[in-house]
Amino acid sequence: MKLLALDSNSIMNRAFYGIKPLTTKSGVYTNAVYGFLNILLKLCEVAQPDAVAAAFDLHEPTFRHKMYDGYKAGRRPMPEELRMQMPIIKEILRALGIKTVECAGWEADDILGTLAAACREAGNECFIATGDRDSLQLAHGGVKVLLAHTKMGRPSTDVFDENEVMAHYGVTPQELIQVKALQGDSSDNIPGVAGVGEKTALALVAKFHTIDKLYASLDDPDIKKGVREKLERDRENAYLSLDLGTIRTNAPVDTQIADYIPKKEPHAARTLAKYELFSLIDKFGLSAADAAGEKPSEAAAPVSLEELSSPAAFEPGERLYFTFDAEDNRITRLYIASENRVLTAGAEQSGFEELLEKIIKSGCKKYSHNTKLLHREAAERDLKCLNICGDLMLSAYLLRPSDTKYDLEHLCLEYGIAAPALPDECEYPAAAYAAVLERLFEKTDLLLEEAGQTSLLHDIELPLARVLAKMETAGFAVDKKGIEEFSQRLGKRIDELVGEIYESAGREFNINSPKQLGAVLFEDMGIPCKKRTKSGYSTNAEVLEELAPDYPIVGLILEYRKLAKLRSTYCDGLLKVIKEDGRIHTFFNQVETRTGRISSLEPNLQNIPIRTELGREMRRFFVAGEGCTLIDSDYSQIELRVLAALSDDKNMIEAFNSGEDIHRTTASQVFGLPPEMITPLLRSRAKAVNFGIVYGIGAFSLAKDTGVSVKEAKEYINGYLRHFSGVADYMEKMISLAKDRGYSETLFHRKRYLPELASSNHMQRAFGERVARNMPIQGTAADIIKIAMIRVDRRLEQEHMKARLILQVHDELIVETPLEEANRALDIVKEEMENACRLSVRLSADAKTGKTWYDSH
């Protein structure tokens, strides 16, 4: 048989510090539990065990503490966020049928040693999983140690047996105990011999094998005088350390390996669901249906699946619950809930298009999941899909913005609802989710009401889905020939740069290989190395930018990298996604970011370069269609305006509403100079402070951004907060509120949950405080731009115009309009953006027209 024995405290500790804070909706920490269970799955892949034992330490003294008062003295106590997860992992392990083993007065190491010895004696295999090298002393006689560590910033596991230990350390596993007796262990406060480190200890044990033989041979000429004196002085500590460091093999625990064969409990899936570890249910071979935990009387009754042969009637006001399958953003099959059955129809049927149009045009109240696809179908047909009353994907996103999955299977697990059984021969398993849509909506609607987010859903997110669908369908026209010619120009310059780099280096090499590049720069050319990594020389942009002014080849390499990325990502990448209509149709993700911002992908048009002149050239190839022009309207300093309004800072509000240059005003106050004496450099530094405050910047980062000392940067920030005292009060208030509530929120009650604020880890807590300060500002700005999009789209429709929104990039809206409508469309866009939200600070939008995106920005 094969036993996997887990050093559970070690693995939990590694998982806790390796994974960012995760909590359940009720605030229970689960990051260590989640990490432990994923590690367990990987260990099982490696070891393929028949039996699993999870050894835990008890929070009480052991025989080693009684032997030596200083044992583990000074070790920091376990963080409370980790301590609270210990009973949870034990509960889950027991549910998974994995036996947990604890023994009063003994450590988990001794339990592992005892189980390893039992396997050795019985001829069984044993794998010990740990992050502690102390267990390597057990790696012999059929026992292997799976040692977890971090390699190149990623978790990794090395397998050690006798041969690996000897190859790595030059001693046997048993002799590692002797090494520890000499070297000691600061983490456990085992004294060892003062002044003897690992290298000396290994050399002594490799020669003498035991400390008994070593102390019997102190007159050996190979032992240096200084080492001999240390050994003589600390003989007692060496033997004490030997006793403390030896893992025992006689702990009073069950050593019958057959007793550790896992036998999963019926409620295992429900236990994982209880702690919202939904992604692990399938990984452990458990049933999602069992995870709902519903009583038989509450569970959904079995449903039948019927083909819908002809379009049904949908009455105005009737509630219609339906889901669909989709492929390439087109709906291919519908599932409509109807009492105890699900009606279905597919694109292969002759009446499917008629049915889909009937649903789109119907006045019934529509409840579904991912309704943007339904709006796309409507837009493709030049129709308007009204009465969308619910979208489970959007509801779930508002309730849990940190989740990464919002599919119906996940939501059934999340809200404890079991999908009904379908006939065995059913080829459409997705049909089952249509039957539980109503019950899912009942739960999410209630939670949204309790969270004060019903208006956020109905007034912003649901109508926005239609706007985004229309934008995706419209797409953005591009100059394909212009992109191709630009790519050729870049290619020519890239070839020139490659030649110049080779000439400067004196040889050819792979410029894209950090290893080869590092060798050329820091070995062949003798350029001073600024930074090393575990894999060798660092050649990242920060390092090269520091070297570029003094070494021409580095400047060439930076230009090469910039042009190569521009060509591959933005030229070649865009050419691949131009559709037959000559336009690029991006996909807008409404449920990705935690602040509520919309993201763009396939391709990401929000990431078209703008910081460099060459990068901005790409915008020349995004053009208006024939007979049209583009309107590009951008909010002016919206986040600073939101900050002024939310903080109710009178000085900042006055500065904005009087039309002052906020950055010049800030510079005047921070530097104590009249506005007319503010130079462009001082204004630039004040601008960095203004925007840095929004993002929770510290003095160190501000100093780096502005090129001043940390002391000066701190003075800038302090001067800023003295003048805008309302901002300083607001920032502290936001942190305090978020700590009390467990989340920060926008003006429109969009929430972001922040378990980091309760962390005992300073860096995590500081991150939580930064987010608590800036999320209300960034999130409110994101909500305002969404409202503006809805209002612009609605107004253009109401006035029966052909102008249409085609792109949103953060605080910027782009409208494509026929030339004859341009002036009116420009007025509408600017008016609706500036009136999207009433704040104590006026919103301002700068709008321009142009034939290309470059010209209109």
How is this structure best described in words?
α1 packs across α2 and α28 crosses α35. This protein has a six-stranded mixed β-sheet, with helices on both faces. It has a six-stranded mixed β-sheet with strand order 7-10-9-8-11-12, with helices on both faces. Strands 22-23-19-24 form a four-stranded antiparallel β-sheet. Mean pLDDT is 91; it is low at 295-299. The chain starts with a strand and ends with a helix. It has 857 residues and is α/β, with parallel strands linked by helices. The protein is built from 37 helices and 24 strands. The protein is 48% helix and 14% strand.
Unreliably modeled segments: 295-299
Class of secondary structure makeup: alpha/beta
End-to-end C-alpha gap: 70 Å
Record the strand order, biggest sheet.
3-2-1-4-5-6
Using DSSP, what is the number of strands?
24
- Largest beta-sheet characterization: 6 strands, mixed
Radius of gyration: 33 Å
Shape: globular
What portion of the residues fall into strands of 2 or more residues? 5-15%
Keywords:
6-stranded mixed β-sheet; alpha/beta; 48% helix; 24 strands; 857 residues; globular
Outline:
This protein is an alpha/beta fold and 857 residues long. Helix content is 48%, strand content 14%.
